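Need tokens for this chain, all 376 residues.
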Amino acid sequence: MKIILFANTDWYLYNFRLALAQALRERGDQVTLLSPNGPYAARLQELGFRWIQFPMARRNLNPLLEADTILRLADLYRRERPELVHHFTVKCVLYGSLVSRLLGIRSVVNSVTGLGYVFTEGYGSPPKYGGSRRRWLQRIVKLFYRILLRRTYVIFQNPDDQAIFILNELVDPQRAALIRGSGVDILRFSPRPEEEGLPVVILPARLLWDKGVAEFVQAARLLRAEGVQARFVLVGDSDPENPSSVPLAQIQEWEREAVIEWWGWVEDMAEAYAKAHIVCLPSYREGLPKTLIEAAACGRPIIASDVPGCREVVRLGENGLLVPSHDPFALADAIRLLIKNPTLRQEMGTRGRDIAVKEFPTAQIIAQTLAVYQSL
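Here are the structure tokens for all 376 residues:
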């Protein structure tokens, strides 16, 4: 079968869908990976995958440029003649679904991997990104979802997002499935003993306001003011194309203040988790955060906001703690509790590993995805 996997970055395909592409190739499918160019395209090609560069702007809203993107995608699909297409991220889902309908491609799968910054509470923490613009974008995106998704098969990562789409009649309930995330490599991400020294608390994520970066920094300030001895670390890079991106100057200012450390982009996240004692993700909303699953698989206790996506991974009191979103004081309380209780950290880490192995192994997620393909 000729299959196209289409995402808005090569990074996404490499980090979240590589195992799926490998499984498809192993069963004999002709897999084409489609995305804008980036640092991971060469890696995909080195692994033997056919990758096609498809330039598209993640943030652009110029109607003429977007129309050109749709026309170019239609031309590409017409030439490639795929039998099944699987779209990831909002623009790819919308444009891919439109083109597939126009060309009569019958097997169309769309993954809703989160509602995106347009729907996220706290979107674009700087005031200029909120208000009427966000509401306008929400209405437009909902309209196109309603028109385009009902004839496709839609995969959701958490039940909250699935319920929203069904309640708003954006999808056909009979053509919707819940598949929790993209899975974790339980061999690569495995437990190691805690390192000696001050407890290390990390937030591994793209540096976006809606990942709870400001709340994490404020919690670090509160705990430092109390005299709590620990290191607070941001692990991840900025994402300038995202309106919610934290400015580089702001991150550097926090570093100069010695409130946090910034490790930047870390290629081997298993090593980052090994250096950590506690992993935090005080996000405003998620699809299904892979970082929390990876941290749990590494035997680390996890702290996250009690929001859709995060609560699918964190079991309160078992493998971690849940706190209200936008609340640095509650976050500081949770971090303090785990800093002062190494035994509790160990117990939560052990339970987290068990949950990751049982519920989130990559092979299980791939099998569920292939079952969707088979049903079309």
